[in-house]
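Late entry, evening session. Most of the bench is empty. Finally got around to the prediction I had been postponing all week. Sequence below, unchanged from the version circulated by S.P.
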Amino acid sequence: MSKGRVWKYGDDINTDVIFPGRYTYKIMEPAEMAAHAMEDLDAEFARNVRPGDVIVAGKNFGCGSSREQAAACLRAAGVQAVVAKSFARIYFRNAINLGLAVLQCEEASDALRTGDEIEIDYPAGKIISGERVFKFFPLPDSVIGIIEAGGLIEFTKEKLASGG
């Protein structure tokens, strides 16, 4: 189980506001990317996000361009997961590849608010906030392994090192 605080946003949060397009072609270290996370949507986010926090949004999170930085900046900022009604297909895959959990759960998206404290049980497929429990399709062990390793590259390195 992992615990975090909710940051709530709406529908159609695109990659240009997750990681501003003006930085797309600038080479940055992860900490510098984290400093620009969500800045065009929420100027307070990068200054106040804490490791383990969770973004909760509406439908079509991560729409727009296919830039990986939109997932990488959130991971670098310490965000453990994004919970949404739905995700743009490429964003969904980029997030998993970079070790950021993406969870589709309409009920949690509707009910949770900024500042709510939640716990996520990935194998059981549960988001818990106080007495409320929201269910999502449990993540496969392989996806949990990728998230725990910090991304697909690290997961693959670990597998190769262990002979698996």
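Two things to note before I forget:
The mean pLDDT is 95.
The first strand starts at residue 2 and ends at 8.
Will write this up properly tomorrow.
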